[in-house]
Amino acid sequence: MDDCSVETVQKNYSLFYQTKIFFSNLWGRVFPKESDTVKHAKREFEALGYDLNQKEEDPNKWICENVIELLKVFSKQGHSGSSAPFCVNYFKKLAMFEPLCPLTGKDDEWNEVGEDVWQNNRCSHVFKDANGKAYDSHGKIFREPNGCCYQNIGSRVYIDFPYIPKTEYIDVGAT
Fold first, then answer.
1. How far apart are CA 166 and CA 148, in angstroms?
2. Per-residue pLDDT tens for 109-142?
3. What is the largest CA-CA distance in the chain?
4. What is the pLDDT of residues 38-59, one digit of tens each?
5. Alpha helix (H) residue ranges in 31-114
6. Do 16 and 73 fall into the same domain?
7. Which residue range forms the structural domain that includes residue 150?
8. Do 89 and 10 share a structural domain?
9. Which of 69, 153, 165, 168 is the most buried (most CB within 10 A)?
């Protein structure tokens, strides 16, 4: 009589599942199928006027190819409508070197970058000055009527910890 214990059934199911994944991945490598996400990206790049089949190399072509490569990896991961937004949000924040949770201001978050100037290693636009006051150098971004933005010393916003980085856009009049 065959062993029908729970442990045996789980072991056989696990082996079956691993075999299925192995052959599915192998099939995908031998006969790659372009995902709907990648097809959509290519259509959108073409709508912007990019020629994805051009021979000459230029930064626009590189960016398109890089984004398509990232989308291929994302598509292979098999995200659903509920997991995809979480993955995209985490990826965007980490790729932009933003923190995932509030900054604490603890000593291990700081690197000395100048005489009596410290930069937060979790958020590169947060600094601490000689008197220990922390500020966000992107606290205020000034926006002109034509959409151009700039920062200056007035962009500093002094902060308290815990701190979630945020930026306020200030519309300024034409000069």
1. 19
2. 999 999 999 999 999 999 999 999 999 999 999 9
3. 90
4. 999 999 999 999 998 888 888 8
5. 36-47, 59-76, 84-95
6. yes
7. 107-171
8. yes
9. 165
Question: What number of other Cβ atoms are within 10 A of residue 120's Cβ?
Answer: 21
pTM for the model: 0.69
Q: Of 105, 102, 104, 81, nearest to 93 (Cα)? A: 102
Same domain for 90 and 116, yes or no, is: no
CB 145 within 8 A of CB 174: yes
Dihedral, CA of residue 53, residue 56, residue 61 and residue 62, to nearest 10: 130
Q: Is position 1 within any domain?
A: no
Q: Which residue type occupies 67?
A: V
- Distances in whole angstroms, Cα of residue 22 to Cα of each of 18, 34, 67, 96: 6, 19, 27, 34
Q: How far apart are CA 168 and CA 154, in angstroms?
A: 12
Residues 18 and 85 in one domain: yes
The answer to whether position 102 is within a domain reads no
Site of tokens 């606290």: 139
